[in-house]
Design goal:
Elements lengths: L28 H10 L1 H5 L6 E5 L6 H13 L4 E6 L2 H7 L7 E5 L11 E5 L7 H13 L6 E7 L5 E8 L2 E9 L16 H4 L7 H15 L8 H10 L14 E5 L8
Helix pairs in contact: 1-3, 7-8
């Protein structure tokens, strides 16, 4: 992995571009639910109050406030810092600050902080693939030892989402998540693939093969639709002939190892 220039907390300059800033209450509930359930022990095991960064929270701090509340249920002394490259958004969020929750200007350099977890949702969609990969490298370099980066995208109200979990060694898993009552076919999640995968969703590439296999499993599970969309999704995930983790299928999620979908495979 390429070496990245490091900045002290006092000298850190914001790296990145301002996003559109669109947000909505509960937009990131799915990724937050997954984070606390799957990686909650990362926060619990921390010997000191864990620091979590919400990168690019948008024009409203609502999703950062929600993340803070959800993480406090797992680790009461967690500290959350919302980072935005737009100073006006930082100023607007000041009214939401409280003990353990603050906002400051920053970008991929993480404002010189060393967080245990970074959540960066809907931040890299506007980037080309190579700059997005460079942003991964920069954020990973700023993590505390054993830290986790969660990067991905979702639709405007959070009903369809996909995200990558990364550690110091790079990407580890891809998770697909959906509001099942409104899901027509699993391949509809393709439009929410992270930047590292979305342009590789073409025949012959691993991520396209995954979505095609999931569609086929969805079709085979059609009889389960009589018991509702959740039953059909669970049956499809459990019947998927793919290296996948379906333990959280009842929540509308499916996780696969990054190596099975990576464009470099």
């Amino acid at each position: 992995m390429a070496r990245v220039k490091r900045y002290s907390a006092g000298r850190a300059r914001a790296l990145g571009l301002a996003t559109r800033g669109t947000t909505a209450p509960n937009r990131l509930r799915r990724v937050d639910r997954w984070l606390t359930a799957v990686h909650g022990d990362l926060l619990r095991r921390s010997a000191t109050p864990p620091l979590v960064v919400d990168l690019g929270y948008g024009a409203s701090p609502v999703t950062a406030v929600e993340l803070f509340g959800r993480l406090r249920e797992v680790r009461p002394d967690v500290e959350v810092v919302g980072l935005e490259i737009d100073q006006e958004r930082v100023d607007a969020a000041a009214g939401a600050e409280c003990e353990g929750l603050s906002f400051r200007r920053g970008g991929f350099e993480l404002a010189g902080l060393r967080p245990l977890v970074v959540r960066a949702l809907n931040v890299l969609r506007q980037y080309e693939e190579e700059p997005a990969a460079q942003a991964w490298t920069t954020m990973l370099a700023g993590l505390a030892p054993g830290g986790l980066l969660v990067e991905g995208t979702c639709d405007e109200i959070g009903r369809r989402a996909a995200w990558v979990a990364l550690d110091a060694h790079g990407p580890r898993t891809l998770t697909l998540a959906a509001h099942l009552p409104t899901l027509d076919r699993p391949s509809s999640l393709a439009e929410r693939l992270p930047k590292a995968l979305i342009h590789h969703n073409v025949p012959g590439r691993p991520v396209h093969a995954l979505l095609a296999a999931l569609d086929q499993a969805w079709d085979r599970a059609a009889p389960q639709a009589a018991f509702g969309p959740r039953a059909r999704w669970v049956a499809a995930c459990e019947g998927l002939e793919w290296d996948a983790d379906a333990r959280r299928a009842r929540f509308g999620e499916l996780t696969v190892p990054w190596g099975t979908v990576s464009a470099l495979r």
